[in-house]
Every structure is written in C-alpha cells, then in structure tokens.
Amino acid sequence: MTMTSLPGDETDLSAPGADDHPASHCDDKMHEECGVFGVWNHGDAAALTALGLHALQHRGQEATGIVAHDGHHFHQHRGLGLVGENFGDARVIAGLPGPNAVGHNRYATTGDTVLRNVQPLYADFEFGGLAVAHNGNLTNATGLRRTLVRRGCLFQSTMDSEVFIHLIAISQYSTVVDRLIDALKQVVGAYSLIALTNEALIGARDPLGVRPLILGQMENAEGGRAWVLASETCALDIVGADFVRDVEPGEIVVITDQGVQSIKPFAKAPARFCVFEYIYFARPDSVMEGTGVYAARKRIGAELARESHVMADVIVPVPDSGVPAAMGYADESGIPFELGIIRNHYVGRTFIEPTDSIRHLGVKLKHSANRGVIEGKRVILVDDSIVRGTTSRKIVEMVRAAGAAEVHMRISSPPTTHSCFYGIDTPERGKLLAARHSVAEMAKLIGADSLAFISQDGLYRALGHKGRDAGAPQYCDACFTGDYPIALPDMANADNRQLSLLSERS
C-alpha cells in the first residue's frame, strides 16, 4: 500500500512530541477500550469478578472497579491502577458481599483518568439501583450530552458512558429493561455493556457487534447455576466457568433467578466485529466469535510470509504481541524462530520516568536484544502494527546495535491509516505514520532494510474468508480502510460547526 506524503512533510521520530502518549517512550501501540465482567447467583461474586478482571487486565490498566449487590444493598469499590492493586486485599472483597456483581477495567478513550471516571457507574433510581460497565465508544455522545444538559441532567463524570445513566433516568418506560432499550435506541456507536440491577444482570451488544461480549455458566456452592458475562473467554477460564455462547450483535440478555432471556430490539444488520481483536487486542488463549485467537495469529503470520518473504537467517518476534505471528511466519518460511528480543515483564506504570538526557534509552525498559541470536544474522522482525513508528525505530536501532547484518520488518496487520472512533485509543490521523508516508518512506524512517505489511485480502484469507471484497466486509477494519460502518455524528457536527465559524470569519 502506498500513501502520498504531504509536500515537505518529513517526520522526525525523535522530535519533541513524537512520543506524546504518557507511556510512549516504551509503548507505541493502540490500546484496547475496556474489559467488562459480571456474575449472577454465586456466593463469591465479587471475588470471581476480581479474578475475571485480572484475566482481562490487558484490556485496560488505568482504573478498575466492582459493584456488588447482596439482595438488599449495593456495595462498590473503585480505584486507579491495576486489579491486583485494588482488589488484592481480602478486606476489600469482604466489603463487597452478595451473589451478584459487575466489574470494569478502564483504558480511557474519553474523559480524564480520575476517580469520578472509574466504572462501573452507579445511580439510584425510582426502581432501585443500577450499575453500568461499558466497553466501547458512543459516536453521538457529545450531541446527546448537550441535549441532556439542556434538559437539566447533571453529569458527574466526563465519560460518554454516563449518557446511558441519564437516558435511562428520563425514559418514560416502566421497566428497567425497557428503559435500557429506549436508551440504546438513542445512542450511536460501538458498545458492549453489562448492567446490574436489584433483579437482573443485563448484557448488551451494539447492532453490528463491533465490541465482544460472551455468556458463560458455572455451578455455585449450592449446586445451582451461576451465570457469567465477560469480554473474553479467558476470563471464563480463570473462574472455572463454561462458555455458553457469544451474545449476538444487537442482542440484550437478561439474567435473573429464572434463567436467561434474549431480547433483540434492533433490525438485523451484517456483523462487523473488530478485526484488531484477532491481531492484537484479545488475549491469545481467548476464542473470539468462534475463532481461536492464537491459531488466527499464526495463520496471519503464515500469510504474511507468503506475501512478502525475504531471505533471512532468523525470525524474531517483537514480544509479546508479535510472537504467534512470528511463529506462523517461521513455520511457513522454514527459517528458524528465535527469541532475539527479550521483554522485561516487571516494568510497571510507576517506574521512574526517564529524564530528557536518557529518554532515548526508554525502549530498553521493556525490551533488550539477545545478541547471541542476532549478531551477524539477517533478521526478520515480526510485529503486529506500526502506529506512530517511534518504538519500531528504536527496536530496529537496538537490533542493529546488537550486530544484525540486515533488519527487515514484517507487520501482521495492514497499515494503520485512520483513527478509531469505536472505543480504541488511537492518535489523531496526522500522527499515524502510515497516514502520511508510503511503505518505502516508512521503512527509511524506522531504519529497516525493508518493510512490508499483510494485505487487507491476506488478512481476510488468514481469518477464513476469500478476501475483503468477496461480498460485504465481515469485520470492522476502519483503521486500515477508512470504511467506518457506524455513523460519526459528533465528528460531522464538529466539522459543520468549524465550517460555519470559518464562513462567519470570512
């Protein structure tokens, strides 16, 4: 794929502002939106929810929270930081009694990282309490928020998720489920959410099923049936629950002591599950929409080798996300797979921030070259994506410094040319390297002897389809194509307001 760069547009990947994400000196990735988990009818609901959130930690590391219900009262605990930092103390879990609970891990896509923005959100209504955990992003939240404020609604957070609370509050319907349906019919965007009320645990997915949500079950201490809702199957495994099925796109599941009720209030539409779940976001041991993530990533790597192989001595993954694709690449090419880069797993969010004088060493906080594997070798580095390109350049420099004769980079996703508006934290489009440069220019900027990405058709083939254009696209792949399957009203309104202001000034 080739992108025409702007005249005179030379990207300096070492310039101030190139690493503008708080952790970008060692982490140049797109970040997942959030993880959600809920339990119904189990005596250890809060403890199970904490375990489930621990399994979903990769989906959000900024904040976490749990709301539990004991049959009479709601109990809640929220905090900034990781699950273990907030729920590792048995006294915290003891303060969350009851057989029903809902939890959330947050990576902020809207709103600041402050305690008032930590989910699940909770509110008291005429019908009782309601806690909501939301994964995704609403693309009409700004317009809805403005309308709700004009109606007198008082927002307590800066998150788009709070829109659900206010829409439910002003709904004229009598039951909680009908109020939720009323709210969901007014929002636009990608979402999976879990809501806990006095009488039910409710799960919902957006009509296109962009964001994941699954249903599981397990036995409780009394020999009865407990139900689980979660973002991924790996969260079922950690609590010993069995996978039942995916919650379908546009479906609402209502779990009560009587069982599971399915409601489908939306017109059926072609599903557009987020393809980046298979490439990077989901944990490798999860199964997404019936497809094992680990096997899918190996197939993507094999397809990448078929499309863009180059002669080399060793295949080296950029850990950890590049490992399965690199294994598939090695199997297909017949070139040995080696751990030529070692990741330090003990670098936390609170590690000392490097000073300007040693900022160039930042990537070594997480990665170091295994010189014995690399020295004198022609190396193929396999990674899942290039976003800003800052980390890719530092990785290439590190491998060269370890004595590599050649460094070729292969990426198991197509070029990321567009921002995501459906709940994934991506930079503005102007900061995406592939949006401003051709592949050849990108190779020069990161210092690689060659660079290649899997094609869009190759990605679809690896996932079991004939190609992207063989019928309607089966996935949301807007970050590669600019084909946004869900409307972006807030963006359109912002553009219109800007045009209006420019017209007034001229």
Description:
It is built from 17 helices and 23 strands. The protein is α+β, with helices and mostly antiparallel strands and 506 residues long. The protein folds into 2 domains: 34-272, Glutamine Phosphoribosylpyrophosphate, subunit 1, domain 1; 295-344 and 358-481, Rossmann fold, CATH 3.40.50.2020. It has a 7-stranded antiparallel beta sheet with strand order 3-2-4-1-10-9-11. The chain has a 6-stranded antiparallel beta sheet with strand order 5-6-7-8-12-13. α9 (293-308) crosses α15. The longest helix is centred in the C-terminal third of the chain and has 17 residues, at 489-505. Mean pLDDT is 88; it is low at 1-12, 14-26, 349-353 and 497-506.
Brief overview, please?
This protein is 28% helix and 24% strand. It has 17 helices and 23 strands.
Task: Show the helix and strand layout.
Layout: E1 34-40, H1 45-55, E2 63-69, E3 74-80, H2 83-87, H3 90-94, E4 100-106, E5 121-125, E6 128-138, H4 141-150, H5 162-170, H6 176-184, E7 189-197, E8 201-205, E9 214-219, E10 225-230, H7 234-239, E11 242-246, E12 252-256, E13 259-263, E14 273-274, H8 276-281, E15 287-288, E16 291-292, H9 293-308, E17 314-317, H10 323-333, E18 341-343, E19 367-369, H11 371-374, E20 378-383, H12 390-401, E21 406-411, H13 433-436, H14 439-446, E22 450-453, H15 456-462, E23 475-476, H16 478-481, H17 489-505
Parallel strand pairs: 14-23, 17-20, 20-21, 21-22
Antiparallel strand pairs: 1-4, 1-10, 2-3, 2-4, 5-6, 6-7, 7-8, 8-12, 9-10, 9-11, 12-13, 15-16, 18-19
Helix pairs in contact: 5-6, 9-10, 9-15
